[in-house]
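Changelog note: in this version the structure field was regenerated for every chain. One regenerated record is shown below for reference.
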Amino acid sequence: MTAVARGPRGYGMPWRGAEVARAAEQAGISAFCSGEFVDHEAYSMLAEMAICTERAEIGPGIAYAFARTPYAHAAGIRSAWRHAEGRVFLGLGSGAFRINRDWFGVEADRPVARMSDLVGAIRAWLHAENGAPVRYEGEFYRIDATVGAPVLGRIDAPVLLAGFNKGMAAAAARVSDGVIGHGLFTRTWWDDVVRPALEKGAAEAEHDRAPLEHGWVITAIDDADPERAAEDARRMIAFYLTVKTYDPYVEHHGWTAQVAEIREAFARRDFAAMGRAVTDDMLDAVAVYGSTADGRAALARRGDSLPRDIAFLAPPSFLVSERRGRRYAQASLALLGDGTGEPA
């Protein structure tokens, strides 16, 4: 892979509504993303972002990949593109096997191969031209469509994959435009696992461009109560680490004992104990938290432990009210200085 010069890192945030977005764009936020769970759906939020923003990139970050057909993913992107041409990206995440099976009622075996095939099928719809058949033949997806109405036309929206472990990270570089990093990512996880996998995937595909790096960064800033911000960040980290899919990450960092304590506390729904089990070194490696001054120092210290293209400053959401989440989002804007989008 040929080395490609990168521009300065941009900063984004998960969507917190139009009012926050107006202030955020003025402060220099260059991207917004939507998450997804049982109480919020990625593409309806994407439509709101398209209508309520002016300059920022927007996209699902992530949408559950296997919960929808390639047609549905592509139609959601195409709808947003009409209002925000050239500003839309698509982030896809495989989701846990049990969520796919038990919540969505869909197949999710061989997730790397299935995701790679899905990206090809989505791009068949996104790249479809008026008057031409839409065809794709893959292992998991097959498309053979003729659309008589002149409503298509090629859309080159970047596709990114949530690549937590090295297999999906390699696929992100091989078949898509890059990766969306998880809020748990640390300097060593980026450097020892994710970036080598990205390089491997790009080399296998003989790409001459560097894969994009987007990613979430747990960010809790509160000048009036920095300790509360730290507690919320600890609980967010703990909640993520209840997922056994992340065991290779836990072992890589030597946090097995702490995570066992977290999971024991979660089993008895002792959320305070979950947070206490997150040690200071874990918190410092993962999150940006505390006062504005603390947060600025953390951003300066983290450097390349952040995603290189867009870092989404993401307020904690576990046991955090919507109102407090908006306050965290607004407070994080002070980390960016004078509206240039660069850390102060």
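Spot check on this record: Residues 187-204 form the longest helix (18 residues). The domain at 10-336 is CATH 3.20.20.30 (TIM Barrel).
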